[in-house]
Write a structure and sequence with these properties.
mainly alpha; two-stranded parallel sheet; 2 strands; about 55% helix; elongated
């Protein structure tokens, strides 16, 4: 079963759609068409995998706030002078990428998109503006690399 369900993304081996890695002079039009369709399907499975990850992130977003709402309220009305709750929140949630406490070793582009969505939605709803959102280039490169690894780790090539 692929990315649209549970389990690994299963793709078939395809050696005939890349002129750099096959004997391209002997690839027929029908073979190239079939290989290209297969590639389109494989990319679709990968994007569905990412969509499922985004859906999961949307469902899990700020669950820590809800689970600790009394402590959140206490910190909130205290102007966050006591940072205990806030530090725990950033450690609990994956999307606080503007703080070392929020950056996981396995940070990924799903986290980056959640961070952007969080900042833009909060700013627009609360003040009608969005403050400058930044991310360290090293974190962004780590997120990119970890996302590549995450997808590779969830793909099985079958004969």
């Amino acid at each position: 079963m692929g990315a649209s369900g549970w389990g690994m993304i299963r793709i078939r081996k395809s050696t005939t759609a890349d002129s750099r890695t096959c004997d391209y002079k002997n690839v027929t039009l029908d073979t190239l068409r079939a290989s290209t369709r297969q590639h389109k399907s494989d990319v679709s499975e990968a994007l569905l995998f990412f969509m499922n990850k985004l859906h999961s992130a949307s469902y899990m977003h700020d669950n820590h706030k809800i689970a600790t709402i009394e402590d959140f309220h206490k910190a909130f009305i205290g102007g966050f002078e006591d940072t205990t709750w806030w530090e725990a929140h950033r450690k609990s949630e994956r999307h606080h990428l503007n703080s070392p406490l929020g950056v996981r070793k396995d940070v990924n582009l799903i986290d980056v998109l959640e961070y952007i969505a969080d900042c833009v939605m909060a700013g627009m709803a609360r003040t009608g503006t969005v403050y400058d959102i930044t991310i360290d280039c090293v974190i962004l490169q780590e997120a990119f690399n970890n996302t590549v690894k995450m997808l590779k780790d969830n793909v099985v090539v079958v004969e």
